[in-house]
Specification:
The chain is of the alpha+beta class and about 600 residues long. It has 15 helices and 27 strands. Helix 1 packs across helix 3, helix 4 packs antiparallel against helix 5 and helix 12 packs antiparallel against helix 13.
Length: about 600
């Protein structure tokens, strides 16, 4: 016979509810603060909803258990159930509930429910539950005190900082032009908790610090060169949007990834699926990266509600009060687009057969969402925001940074692997008149001119945020994050090359012609560098072939979309339709050159 032991605590917080919720929802940090032990994970594919088998120590007992996915309703409550495999308890459920108080604070109710088959263990289980709640209650009180100071960090540090090594790295970052962001990174590494520095996300920090994202990302990459940080790559699940796997090099990527939690496989692209994160080197600061929790609302902040869907049973969620577009996801891949609008139905019931689900459902704010299951295994179901602020420094962003290819030349895809990028802008240049110079001025003088012209053009490319993919003879292939940067760089290149030509009689006999085009492409490793291939590359190269000396040729649509790049330029503009080799339909293009 099973005996259930239930223990509760109520903590009165001064802080308002949304702030308390956000602090509590970071369950990894909360468990660290409460003195919980680190978890050891093993993927689990049994018939329960659990996706991991966990081993750890609870209240002095070595235990292993199946951890079911957390259940929650945003701002209101969350809980986690653990099916114990060892120890005196067969099931353990920990839950949190919040409600606003009349004074503007928050009442937090903590509850632990444990079942044991041994009547002689009831008293010990009750003592253990009280011990756990004592730690959690203290952590909640600390969080409330921190919130009153405008902070939400509870200290958890695994080792001392090497202050000398940290200062050397900071000085090196300052020398490289990263004084502001470098100082902030050094401050974070010196004073932050382990969970804050175990996976540093440059864009999230930039938003928090109110600094340009590119500035913090560039400083983080410089920190790797300075011995301050390590670069890692997280494979991001498109459903839960968390890192399902972490690798140390792009060479470890493959065409597909998988998420144990969501039970799905997904294709890998460099725009969405691969995120760069950083952590301190062990020499600067040892870090305990955990995990201390594998669930909790803060891990997936775009998810507003999550519940367990029993085998051949039902789960119920509540639609948000805010109108908008949301997505209902059931582990394994079934989805329904849910649009919340005033005046719509107050209840949505989805039948057991998923292929009978509608592609879209319209419901009222606060509507009841009931999902049925006819499957043999329990799963979880969640309601998530469709639109979500992107704070991932993706592999696309990182590989476009000027100097990345030079300073991280070992970061290459494995041979034969091609990963998609949704959009980049590519530029090709060609130096006209150089071939004749080799015979007329000699190899040494001509070669020196080619190298000097590379310096001039590459500087213009990198100043606009572009990166050189490769040089081909006296030509350059460069890549840019967007069309506006590429066009601005192309016009800069025409301008600086005029100065270059005017400085020497030999140089005056040459000129450049440029072409650019933006679109989807694939990234591969070719000849020891990250390269691009696909139709976008072909069109960009063909447009360079359309240009005459001192000209840039670009698609009309691209130029019209980024007219700001032309607003201060004195240009001659010629519009025409180009019939490009390998392209069936004529392409409307613009020929641009400096006005005489």
């Amino acid at each position: 016979m099973l005996t259930e032991v239930v223990v509760e605590r109520v903590v009165e917080c001064v802080s308002e509810r949304s702030a308390v919720w956000l602090a509590l929802a970071d369950t990894d940090r909360l468990n660290r603060a409460a003195g919980m032990e680190r978890l050891a994970l093993e993927p689990f594919d049994g018939e329960s909803a659990a996706r991991f088998l966990i081993r750890t120590t609870l209240a002095g007992f070595e235990v292993s258990y199946e951890e079911l996915p957390y259940e929650w309703q945003y701002l209101e409550r969350f809980r986690v159930q653990r099916l114990m495999r060892e120890g005196p308890v067969t099931q353990l459920t920990t839950s949190f509930a919040t409600e606003p108080t009349s004074a503007g604070g928050t009442r937090v109710t903590l509850r632990v429910a444990a079942t044991t088959p041994d009547p002689e263990m009831v008293e010990m289980v009750q003592m253990s539950a009280n011990f756990s709640l004592d730690g959690l209650s203290t952590a909640v009180q600390q969080l409330d005190a921190q919130l009153q100071k405008g902070e939400v960090v509870l200290p958890h540090r695994s080792g001392a900082v090497n202050a000398e090594a940290l200062e050397r790295a900071r000085l090196e970052l300052t020398k490289q032009g990263h004084a502001v962001a470098g100082a902030r990174l050094a401050e974070l590494i010196s004073g932050g908790a382990d969970d804050q520095v175990a996976a540093i996300r440059p864009y999230a920090l930039a938003d928090q610090w109110k600094l340009p994202r590119g500035q913090v990302l560039a400083a983080s990459l410089a920190g790797v060169r300075a011995g301050l940080l390590e670069l890692r790559w997280d494979l991001v699940c498109p459903s839960c949007r968390t890192g399902s796997t972490t690798v140390g090099s792009l060479a470890e990527l493959s065409e597909h990834g998988s998420c144990q939690l969501c039970d799905i496989d997904f294709g890998i692209d460099l725009d969405q699926s691969v995120e760069a994160t950083f952590r301190p080197t062990a020499h600067v600061r040892p870090v305990d990266g955990g995990p201390y929790c594998i669930g909790g609302p803060s891990r997936t902040p775009h998810v507003l509600a999550q519940a367990l869907l029993p085998a051949k049973g039902e789960a119920e969620l509540t639609a948000p009060l805010e109108p908008g577009r949301y997505r209902l996801f059931v582990r394994g891949g079934e989805t329904v687009l849910v649009e919340v609008e005033q005046g719509r139905a107050g209840e949505l019931r989805l039948p057991e057969v998923s292929n009978e689900w509608p592609a879209k459902a319209l419901v009222a704010p606060g509507a009841k969402l009931v999902i049925a299951s006819n499957g043999p295994a329990a799963r979880h179901v969640k309601l998530e925001r469709v639109a979500w602020a992107q704070q991932a420094a993706t592999a696309r962003d990182v590989t476009l940074i000027p100097g990345f290819r030079r300073d991280f030349s070992n970061q290459l895809l494995k041979p034969g692997l091609a990963l998609k990028v949704a959009r980049v802008s590519l530029l090709f240049s060609d130096l006209t008149g150089s071939t004749a110079l080799y015979s007329e001025a000699g190899d040494a003088a001509a070669f020196r001119l080619v190298l000097d012209h590379f310096d001039v053009l590459i500087s213009a490319i990198e100043k606009r945020g572009g990166s050189v993919v490769k040089t081909i003879g006296d030509a350059i292939m460069a890549v840019f994050p967007d069309d506006a940067s590429a066009l601005a760089a192309a016009l800069d290149m025409l301008a600086v090359f005029e100065t270059f030509r005017g400085s020497d009689a030999l140089r005056a006999r040459t000129h450049v012609k440029l072409g650019l085009f933006g679109g989807p492409t694939y990234v591969v490793t070719a000849n020891g560098v990250l390269d691009y291939f696909g139709q976008t590359v072909n069109v960009a190269a063909r447009l360079q072939g359309e240009a005459h000396s001192g000209e840039v040729v670009a698609p009309l649509a691209l130029v019209e979309a980024v007219t700001d790049a032309l607003s201060t330029r004195m240009l001659e503009v010629q519009r025409y339709s180009a019939q490009l080799k390998g392209i069936e339909a004529p392409l409307p293009v613009v020929r641009l050159r400096a006005r005489s």
